[in-house]
Amino acid sequence: MQITPLLQHIVKHTAIHSKWLNTxxxxxxxxxxxxxxxxxxxxxxxLVLKHAAEEHRHAFYLKKQLAKLDENLCKTYTQPELLAPxxxxxxxxxxxxxxxxxxxxxxxxxxYDLKFAAYLFVTYxxxxxxxxxxxxxxxxxxxxxSKVTVKSIILEEEGHLEEMINQLNEFSPDWKQHAAExxxxxxxxxxxxxxxLADELQIVVN
Length: 206
Fold this sequence. Notes:
Blueprint: H1 4-12, H2 14-37, H3 46-65, H4 67-70, H5 85-107, H6 111-143, H7 151-171, H8 175-201
Helix pairs in contact: 1-6, 2-3, 2-5, 3-7, 5-6, 5-8, 6-7, 6-8
């Protein structure tokens, strides 16, 4: 699916662009909460805390970017202030459920071990997606000479991906083949999300 035309349409319209920023902020915040939910009650590493804090900061940063468009828009994460709200709100949860099923089947994990493994693989898939989506969005922003920028997020997401790869190397020697399957799961969900956005905005995206 070509996402550039969709993002170009979004950036052209202030009200829609505000909802898009708010939608990204919601998803970053949801990711941060997922990370916190996966934490062990006592054995919490510095890296996990860092990652959760940075995802929360991304949510805050994106929310602040709204003021560059219209500070009166998208004050909350309610349905009318998000794009494709149903797909958006259940994206990470659905991915987490599907990944947990996959990991149960292939690693026979449960309890905290399952939560942590799901955190590793879900976060990896999301970081791969972020490394694709944010640069395209930034290019569209730059071409439109928008005041909005996501350059700082791009740099941090690249660092997150490297950190997840390091942790996955410790988790399993054959993590790459499992990660590839989980990325496929995420890719299908992403396409459904993009299609929901296109349908809502009445844009034909191939």
